[in-house]
Amino acid sequence: MDPHDPFPRRTATISLMVPWITEVLSTLPGLLRSYGPGRSLDPRTRERIILAVTEVNGCRYCAWIHGSWQEFLGGSVQVADAEQALVAYAQACAEAGRPLPADDLRAVLPADSVRAVRATVAQIEVSNLVGNTVDGMLARLTRKRPLSPLDFAREAATVAVAAPIAIPLLATAGVMRVTSRLAPPLPDVDMPPAGEANLLAHLLAAAAPTYFANAVVRLAVLGLPRSIAVGIRAGRTAATVRVGRGRIGVENGISRDTVVVVEGEVEPLLQLATGSIVRELSTVRIRPS
What we know:
alpha/beta; AhpD-like; 5-stranded mixed β-sheet; 10% strand; disordered C terminus
């Protein structure tokens, strides 16, 4: 940043953009895979990383877009301790103004996940710089910073290139924010009397905030005019989940009125219930260099 420029945020310049664009290009396959089937980065974790970087850079447009996205996905879900390592890495990169080595993450995460994290940090850094450039231009027009025609022309060119991407994102964010407002709130889970619920019932109740965090899911399922029952069987244990009419309930065993019975394993539910991502991440320490 120019110490003589009164504008307090970083904007898009060649020296700032090149390291991040290089990082995006080098990790692009990991970024694309992170959005596809079998993704290596959970969407809620991605949004927390994005908002952590945006908080450092102060881009109000990215904050609004990704705040809407997080609210849509269910930003109130409890953050696992292990995720803090990813957030710390993202913040350290943003504060340094350049990509930092990911050796500590690489020691405990699969290669695809590391590339996805690096790419996520890089692409939101580019977005933050462009968003701040818009505000920088507005500051020039309102004479809160020197007009500087050459700099203004450079900033205008940057914004013009980004506009075809930014405008649809802003529109999508608006739709998601409206959907989040219309969706019913996540209710407390109705459980069997104290001491009577089996293990599967407890796991289903603990995992419910994750399954029903998405605004569309809450709007479609909790907004049903009548309750429906879904049976879950894991090994020798079974339980029934009832959803609809703004309520979620869990019962022991398979109820007679279940519309479908799903068979699976306990481990995925256990991971959801405990908020697990990669627990080894709790030992990671980020060292700027």
